[in-house]
């Protein structure tokens, strides 16, 4: 069994760590190379005037002395210490432009290669740490308190039936978890320098492997089981995540999000019993598909309706009073499908980020990163429901309540 709230927390870590993986500029560690602008060329001595007629040997001697003094003066003016022109010969030779270009190219190549491997290692390390942390959490939260079974137990839980375990919210949780993990892993690895093909292959393989292992562990623990519907939802989430990553036009038009606000039942369990499994607080969750009005060209370019880029048309689903079980009577289980309008928080933060890019690049980056988070998280109480369909399924029967997490 997989729960969506844990995935939302993990994906937040992915988003926040990706900007820190930007590799250093290839030129940031280059040694200083001599260039025509920083080479000091010694000045050349001015030619002596021809001796006047009839000056004789004495004048020649004086001219020779003057020339020698001029050479020394010129050498001192050029920054070379010495009393004769021979000192100039000891000055370091100027590298040729060809050799300088070759040195720069070689140094840039070596630095880029070092940064590339460093970025890849960092991103792979972060990804491995996230998987390890989540797997450890599932062991202590779900499996350690429960007895193991000798045989693999299979479950046919159904999908959105009124008497299902969570009214279908758990299946959407599986879908969203795999969707978010697939996209988040690709973003993390690409930020570290891996190619799109490498990132996509690793993301799909690791995501499917991780959630399949979790499902098998469910199958060997009492109260859980290997759910066929869960596996179908896992595969669908990975497939849609890969499709949205590769199809940029679709990604610009549509978001898939989760909305969460803790219920009072979960808060009471947290305070009184120390239960931290917010992922199973399905009554506080909603799964949302949003279409950006700003992706419609005529609206975006319109002088009168350009503001619609800050609005999304949404369809959402909730299953209320399934899990956690209501503590007070008179709270029937309900399944809700609604359509309406909501704020496009991603576009709001991106616009804010662009407006501060010149004045404060760091703050602009923070705003842009925050906007990316809202591609996956729907802010509670920001949706205006226009059409709402409810199905009242009555209160949970006592025999189902006493059966534990699953029937």
Structural write-up:
There is one protein chain. The protein has 407 residues and is of the alpha/beta class. It has one domain. It is 49% helix and 13% strand. It has twelve helices and eight strands. The strands form two sheets. A six-stranded mixed beta sheet has the order 7-3-4-5-6-8. Strands 1-2 form a two-stranded parallel ribbon. The two termini are 13 Å apart. 29% of the residues are buried.
Structural classification = alpha/beta
Oligomer: single chain
Report the β-strand fraction as a percent range: 5-15%
| Helix percentage range | 40-55%
Q: Helical element count?
A: 12
Q: How would you summarize what this structure contains?
A:
This protein is an alpha/beta fold and 407 residues long. The chain contains twelve helices and eight strands.
Give a topology summary.
Layout: H1 4-17, H2 56-77, H3 97-143, E1 154-155, H4 169-191, H5 196-219, E2 226-227, H6 228-246, H7 248-253, E3 254-260, H8 264-273, E4 285-292, H9 297-301, E5 311-320, E6 334-343, H10 345-355, H11 361-373, E7 377-378, E8 383-392, H12 398-401
Parallel strand pairs: 1-2, 3-7
Antiparallel strand pairs: 3-4, 4-5, 5-6, 6-8
Helix pairs in contact: 1-3, 1-4, 3-4, 3-5, 4-5, 4-6, 5-6, 10-11
